[in-house]
Automatic annotation (TrEMBL):
One annotated Gene Ontology cellular component of this protein: chloroplast
Protein name, per record: Cytochrome P450
GO molecular function: heme binding; iron ion binding; monooxygenase activity; oxidoreductase activity, acting on paired donors, with incorporation or reduction of molecular oxygen
BP GO annotations: carotenoid biosynthetic process
Organism: Gossypium raimondii (Peruvian cotton)
Domain of life: Eukaryota
Pfam families: p450 (PF00067)
Family to which the UniProt record says this protein belongs: Belongs to the cytochrome P450 family.
Comp. bias (Low complexity): 36-54
Annotated spans, Disordered: 36-55
Matching SUPFAM superfamilies: Cytochrome P450
């Protein structure tokens, strides 16, 4: 879900050739246009705008939620943030983490936020965050599951408890070193070369490029090949599956901000245009994945394929799907479909975000950009990278790590208390309480 501020428009003044060369590439410069360069004021001026698309919306519902859910006997010890619609009127594009950071500085590392019909406890303290995330029986994914179950089904992206443990154990063995080495060579490098080729005309004439969009397309292609051995070719073509993926993601985002969860009523989903569109999108995605599973299963059965070594890779089809089917694990096709959908839909967006922010931050620090470029030239010497090269690209790895610290994706994690609990610091929460862990705040707090 796009609940973060995205540096969307990159203007290239010069860009290196996509073909490997045997000499050091001179420093290439490019300029960035980004909404993040506009620093919001501490207290935005009240606006007369009629927009009510904010998640703190409308004000009367927020006030009603406070009075009904908190009452006069609140002994939780958690301060209540005073959040009005105008607080985020300049940030309706989705930069939720910025007002959360502002309120942390005002109210401390934990505060209560009545947002529309929902009441969140916002956590910016690592000890409290650790308590919530590690106490699996006491806290569940709650709202995350509610708004995305229509897409992920029982996939491990939203699975809980024993199901999550079982499915994770089934998938993790496929991500071994030999698999990653093959993917870097056959998939990562080739997809990256295709992206550079597509960017070249823009680089030559200085046309602005939406790099968030390009990186998202790149990672979708990479995951399609890595997971299914299927080429979406989203960098060059439009397809119903790609459109459906983004429609479904948008629906999940909208559900997280809806004033009332009307989409829980099946009858309404059959007549509300937005829900009809979302249902059609999910049908397209699931049908495509199911067809890929059937096709791959037929090949595995025909060849009598079985995993016969720890780091098994099928040379003709090294995908995760092929590995899971060859493992002969007892799992339904629907569960396999939902697990693969979790990797496809959730995985490409997070990776695209990391690439976008890393490039953006390097562009704002020419000396760091030059150092990263020189390291790549020194280590690779004009050839394509391999999996083994990662350990030698130390500075570039640190740049990516710092990018993840500054702009984590997702910037918030949401959990729901299953029982009454006392958090570190003697803060009390009731069963059913939604908790929003601000990863962004934890990474930026001067107290950590």
């Amino acid at each position: 879900m796009q609940s973060y501020l995205a540096p969307s428009s990159f203007t290239f003044l010069s860009f290196p050739s996509q073909k490997p060369i045997n000499k050091t590439i001179p420093f290439q410069s490019f300029t960035i246009k980004s909404s993040i360069d506009k620093t919001p004021t501490t207290k935005p001026k009240p606006t007369t705008s009629s927009k009510t698309t904010s998640w703190v919306s409308p004000n009367w519902l927020t006030s009603l939620t406070k009075s009904l859910t908190l009452g006069s006997n609140d002994d939780s010890g958690i301060p209540i943030a005073s959040a009005q619609l105008e607080d985020v009127s300049e940030l309706l594009g989705g930069a939720l983490f910025l007002p959360l950071f502002k309120w942390m500085n005002e109210y401390g590392p934990i505060y209560r936020l009545a947002a529309g019909p929902r009441n969140f406890v916002v956590v910016s303290n690592p000890a409290i965050a650790k308590h919530v995330l590690r106490n699996y029986g006491k806290y569940a994914k709650g709202l995350v599951s509610e708004v995305s179950e229509f897409l992920f089904g029982s996939g491990f992206a939203i699975a809980e408890g024993s199901l999550w443990t079982v499915r994770r154990r089934a998938v993790v063995p496929s991500l071994h070193k030999k698999y990653l080495s093959v993917m870097v060579d056959r998939v990562f490098c080739k997809c990256a070369e295709r992206l550079v080729e597509k960017l070249q005309p823009f680089a030559l004439d200085g046309t602005a490029v939406n790099m968030e969009e390009k990186f998202s397309q790149l990672t979708l292609d990479v995951i399609g090949l890595s997971v299914f051995n299927y080429n979406f070719d989203s960098l060059t073509t439009d397809s119903p599956v790609i459109d459906a993926v983004y429609t479904a993601l948008k629906e999940a985002e909208l559900r997280s901000t809806d004033i009332l969860p009307y989409w829980k009523i099946s009858a309404l989903c059959k007549i509300v245009p937005r829900q009809i569109k979302a249902e059609k999108a999910v049908t397209v995605i699931r049908k495509a994945v199911e067809e890929l599973i059937v096709k791959c299963k037929e090949i595995v059965e025909k060849e009598g394929e079985r995993i016969n070594e720890e780091e098994y890779v099928n040379d003709a089809d090294p995908s995760i799907l092929r590995f899971l089917l060859a493992s002969r694990e007892e799992v339904s096709s629907l569960q396999l479909r939902d697990d693969l959908l979790s990797m496809l839909v959730a995985g490409h967006e997070t990776t695209g975000s990391v690439l976008t922010w890393t490039l953006y931050l390097l562009s704002k620090d020419p000396s760091a950009l030059l150092k990263a470029q020189q390291e790549v030239d020194r280590v690779l010497e004009g050839r394509n990278p391999t999996y083994e090269d990662i350990k030698d690209l130390k500075f570039l790895t640190r740049c990516i790590t710092e990018s993840l610290r500054l702009y984590p994706h997702p910037p918030v994690l949401i959990r729901r208390a299953q029982v009454d609990d006392v958090l570190p610091g003697d803060y009390k929460v009731k069963a059913g309480q939604d908790i929003m862990i601000s990863v962004y705040n934890i990474h930026h707090s001067s107290q950590q």
